TrEMBL record:
Family per similarity comment: Belongs to the ABC transporter superfamily. Macrolide exporter (TC 3.A.1.122) family.
Name listed for the protein in its UniProt record: ABC transporter ATP-binding protein
PROSITE patterns: ABC_TRANSPORTER_1, ABC_TRANSPORTER_2
Alphabetized Gene3D superfamilies for the sequence: P-loop containing nucleotide triphosphate hydrolases (3.40.50.300)
Organism encoding this protein: Ciceribacter ferrooxidans
GO molecular function, one term: ATP binding
One Pfam family, short name: ABC_tran
Domain ABC transporter: from-to ranges: 6-235
Keyword Nuclease appears in the UniProt entry: no
Superkingdom of origin organism: Bacteria
Gene Ontology CC entries for this record: membrane protein complex
SUPFAM superfamilies recorded: P-loop containing nucleoside triphosphate hydrolases (SSF52540)
Record key words, sorted: ATP-binding, Cell inner membrane, Cell membrane, Membrane, Nucleotide-binding, Translocase, Transport
């Protein structure tokens, strides 16, 4: 059998703030195959973002092991983690973090200039349906369009993995669906392994696999035998 893209073994994470220790993850085991869409559900504070941040090299586990392809993330230095993020991971957050003084094209080009085998910015913007708007500044774009620019920026370096933390959290359903369509199209065309955290349980229907978190653990895993396209998801 092929090696999984991600292997997460017995991962725990605790945060110490003054005298208070918070156990954010209490033993996570997970394998993630190349090309999979994973949706992560669960109440606020259940550990979803903490796990994504560790898988994306933004944070380190307290104990346990995380492997991505042949990178042992849990034994990398800060510098090596920076290179891992730069070369392999695209991030999408609830807020788009675009640079307001740069056009859509320029926001994407910032990333392609430092990538090894990037797409052209126009190509990435075309994949999210925004080629016609590439000379527009963020303030001239709707929230959903700005999020699609952020997705174009994340995919332009051709990452193997996209980690999305509440990508539709600030959007109405119509624009949220366009954002999910962009993520599904990228998954299909580039085989990008994609993890999506959401509070919107309806989105589970676009996933290959749905993980539900509870109190720092994965309490349920469901493999979807049938998936819906984002346009058929109602919320
Ligand atoms: N940097 C930090 N310092 C201290 N505690 C933290 C830190 N980051 C997260 N936590 C705590 O760890 C727990 C898990 O947080 P996490 O953000 O992973 O949850 P979540 O499921 O993503 O929640 P949400 O859906 O609200 O984003 C929470 O109790 C949170 O307060």
């Amino acid at each position: 059998m092929a090696e999984p893209l991600f292997l997460v073994e017995n991962v725990t994470k605790s945060y110490q703030t003054g005298d208070v220790e918070v156990q954010a993850l209490r033993g996570i085991n997970l394998t993630l195959e190349g090309g999979e869409i994973l949706v992560l559900l669960g109440p606020s504070g259940s550990g979803k973002s903490t796990l994504l941040n560790i898988m994306g090299g933004l944070d380190q586990a307290t104990s346990g092991r995380v492997r991505f392809a042949d990178h042992e993330l849990t034994s990398l230095s800060e510098r090596q983690l920076t290179l891992y993020r730069r070369d392999h991971v695209g991030f999408v957050f609830q807020f788009y973090n675009l640079i307001p003084s740069l056009t859509a094209w320029e926001n994407v080009a910032l990333v392609t200039e430092i990538s090894r085998d990037p797409m052209k910015p126009g190509e990435a913007l075309e994949m999210v349906g925004l080629k016609e708007r590439m000379d527009h500044f963020p303030a001239q774009l709707s929230g959903g369009e700005q999020q699609r620019v952020a997705i174009a920026r994340a995919i332009a370096k051709r990452p193997e993995v996209m980690l999305c933390d509440e990508p539709t959290g600030a959007l109405d359903s119509k624009t949220g669906i366009l954002v999910l369509e962009a993520l599904c199209r990228i998954n299909e065309e580039l085989k990008t392994t994609t993890a999506i955290i959401t509070h919107n349980a309806a989105i589970r229907q676009i996933a290959h696999r749905v993980l539900t978190f509870h109190d720092g653990r994965i309490s349920e895993t469901v493999v979807n035998t049938e998936r819906l396209p984002p346009s058929s998801v109602v919320w």
